[in-house]
Amino acid sequence: MISAVILIEAEPAMVAELAEALVNLDGVSEAYSVTGEYDLVAMVRVAEHDALADVVTHGIAKLDGVRRTHTLVAFRVYRDSDWDWEIN
Prior knowledge:
Elements: E1 2-10, H1 15-23, E2 28-33, E3 40-46, H2 49-59, E4 66-73
Antiparallel strand pairs: 1-3, 1-4, 2-3
């Protein structure tokens, strides 16, 4: 399993629509709107590097409102023991 964090700079008026489009792409498990240099973060989980390239270049980068992306490939995933907790 390949895990990657995709940082996305978006057109300001397109952030909400872009987030919805991101989570509908195969391989994108979640998307976050964030503060700072980037507007959105997409978490991608795929089986192989070729699939990651397809998700980023043929999926995310082609969505309306994406200005640029920056991909961080994870070497190893660490999780807190409380990972599956719910917020009420």
